[in-house]
Amino acid sequence: MFTGYGTRAKASDEVDFFLPIAVHYPVGRPIGATSQGETLPKPQLFTPLKIKGTHFQNRLGVSPMCTYSAPSEGDSVGFATKFHEIHYGSFALRGAGLIIVEATAVRPEGRLSPEDLGIWSDEHARSLKPIVDFAHSQGTKIGIQLGHGGRKASGLPIPLHVSKGARKGEDQGWDTVGPSPISYDEEQFPAPHELSVDEIKEIVLSFKDAAKRAYDIAHFDFVEIHGAHGYLISEFLSGLSNTRTDAYGGLLENRARILLEIVDAVKDDEHPLFVRISASDLTDETKAWTLEQAGELALLLEDHGIDVLDVSDGGNYNKARRRPQGPASQAPLAKAIRDKLHSRGTQTPILVASVGGFHSGVVAEEKLQDKSADIILSGREFLINPGAAIRFGQDLGVKISSAWPYEWSYEYPALTQDQVTPVPEAQV
């Protein structure tokens, strides 16, 4: 826990080892101009945010990214390890306003790969608690993405293969489930078992139980429901993967039913609730999920009381167009949905987060200023540089508070071009 200010290194009381905390301000708070120049108006990216009773130091977050690093066999399948503590701790020390832990399965068969994290038991939640404790030691807010892989579960880790199922009995794979018995890719993934209504109800309950563990045992600050990228909830939303004729198929309200039931089961009055969706299936196929439908879903989700809609794209159709590339490439999708929410006239519309192509503070700030989004999430930039929040602040002329050992990053001004000594070419 952040305990105050002072002039000496102070230790956190959240962990059982000496861990210095930020001395002057909580990690992630803007504390003035960089040595580059004069004090500037505070960028919106580094303004605080309050959702329900939770205070975030800034609006730049670490997007959930699978690391495929949990044990896949033995008694600790799906448990978080020291690796995860180090991985997420590196972001917590350096100024991220929020961190979302990677897709974590609410049931064993819901893991995206055999090496994915799980939270289907109290023991799994206890393995995640050290990650939360470390983040809280710096005053950093941290949430967890709860998910079920559906027909794309039991996949090989992406570093090994971009999109291929893990074979049952050979690659530690298992039988998968989905809204309809339609394979994601007949050459790489088997057709899933079609869920019965009773089985759907069990999955909804699994999300509820997982959220309770996340709060009561691991002490996460918020949860995000994973409804994107072609995993179970996303499969229900799209007509390409959902051909049901019962209460969970057909009209949009029916295809969205499982997600809305999960939202109703998980939400409470204390914790912010995030939901991630794909804005489209990235195809012109007749039954595909579209941006227009995503906008209608956003209104339904607002009616059901979510707090943040995290807008991504694609993942449900193996022949889809490639996602747009470049700076803030998916921001237009977030803006379209945000505009639809605000056109409704609600006094306090839900917040919208944008992800994809945020590699500088300037681009992130632009997308907040033009009202494309209220929160910016970055993934690969944090993988490349865990101090991306500090770097984004420097892009905008703002110094961001970080943990004591990293305050050194501001001690020396960056060299101007005429101060750089050229490196001689290597002599062969």
CATH topology (level 3) name:
TIM Barrel
Number of helical segments?
Answer: 11
CATH superfamily: Aldolase class I
Average pLDDT figure: 90
Shape verdict: globular
Characterization of the model:
The chain has 428 residues and is an alpha/beta fold. The chain has one domain (30-416): Aldolase class I (TIM Barrel), CATH 3.20.20.70. The chain has helices at residues 82-92, 122-137, 197-216, 232-237, 252-255, 257-266, 291-303, 331-343, 361-369, 380-384, 388-395, and strands at 30-33, 49-51, 54-56, 60-62, 98-105, 141-147, 177-178, 193-194, 222-227, 273-278, 308-312, 351-355, 375-378, 398-400. The chain has an eight-stranded parallel beta barrel with strand order 4-5-6-9-10-11-12-13, surrounded by seven helices. Strands 1-14 form a two-stranded antiparallel sheet. Strand 5, helix 2 and strand 6 form a beta-alpha-beta unit. Helix 1 (82-92) runs parallel beside helix 2 (122-137), helix 3 (197-216) runs parallel beside helix 6 and helix 7 packs across helix 8 (331-343). The termini are far apart. Residues 1-6 have low confidence and may be disordered.
